[in-house]
Write a structure and sequence with these properties.
Elements lengths: L1 E10 L17 H13 L6 E2 L8 E12 L4 H11 L4 E9 L11 E9 L13 E2 L6 H8 L4 E4 L14 E12 L2 E8 L6 H13 L7 H8 L14 E7 L2
Parallel strand pairs: 3-10, 5-6
Antiparallel strand pairs: 1-3, 1-4, 2-3, 5-9, 5-10, 7-8, 8-9
Helix pairs in contact: 1-2, 3-4
Length: 247
């Protein structure tokens, strides 16, 4: 009997070209999952993700759903996936879901974390997951700037796609910037994020922390909606999707 399953997936995105399947490109997270699950049920399946992480971005809690015709238990499906998926993708959980559950359309919020390294020595064992910043930014200045970004705004100026036809209005309800030893983390929670939005926000906040722009400049960037006025796009490797929220 065909049933809908909710998957929670973690992955190291370092060698993948993002979540979404692409023509003539085998190295995508969605593509790998679909290949393994299709082999399991001996028919083509479509895995629907909660969003599309970009090339090089990691995840601890990506959510997806897939319809499968199988007599296997949830644990057996999980274990089958983890047996045949590459070592840098792990299905953390498989749960039967209602037929109407849709990983993307039913998502109401997401949490992302961006990590930068500000230590004096090379971040040897974390190098694939952090952005090394040599001009150490001031955390208090970045925290002050982040307050201007909270709430519901048109984030067109912080988007990689200037010709996006859909709405660029998003609600960001929390930005927590913390220094822990040689690392500074930027944790964002909102109802959704535009392409490269978290990385552009982070790059812009880093510039504030380095004294290259003022905290109140965030307000102007939101009003002018011009990508060229915002800061640099922080590298993908420092970004991790932590969680997707559902009601």
């Amino acid at each position: 009997m065909l049933r809908n399953y909710k998957l929670t997936v973690a992955y190291d995105g370092s060698r993948f070209y993002g979540w979404a399947s692409q023509p003539d490109q085998e190295m995508t997270i969605q593509g790998k999952l679909e290949s393994v699950l299709s082999r399991m049920v001996e028919e083509d399946v479509e895995v629907i993700g909660a969003g599309r992480t970009d090339a090089g971005v990691h995840a601890r809690g990506m959510v997806a759903n897939v319809h499968l015709d199988t007599t296997m238990t949830e644990r057996q499906i999980r274990d089958y996936c983890n047996q045949y998926l590459p070592d840098d993708i792990c299905v953390r959980e498989v749960k039967a879901a209602s037929d109407r559950f849709h990983a993307r359309y039913n998502a109401i919020g997401k949490t992302y974390c961006y990590t930068i390294y500000v230590g004096d020595l090379k971040p040897l064992f974390q190098r694939k997951y952090v952005f090394e910043v040599f001009d150490k930014p001031d955390v208090a200045r970045m925290q002050e700037a982040s307050k201007y970004l909270l709430g519901t705004h048109d984030f067109a100026g912080f988007s990689h796609n200037p010709r996006m036809k859909k709405s660029t209005v998003r609600t960001v309800d929390s930005i927590v910037i913390e220094k822990k030893g040689d690392f500074i983390t930027f944790t964002y929670h909102g109802d959704g994020f535009l392409q490269y939005m978290v990385r552009i926000l982070t790059g812009t906040l880093i510039e504030v922390g380095q004294g290259k722009r003022e905290p109140e400049n965030m307000k102007e960037l939101l009003e002018k909606k011009d990508r060229s006025l915002a800061g640099f796009t922080a590298p993908a490797k420092g970004l991790t999707l932590l969680k997707v929220d559902y009601q």
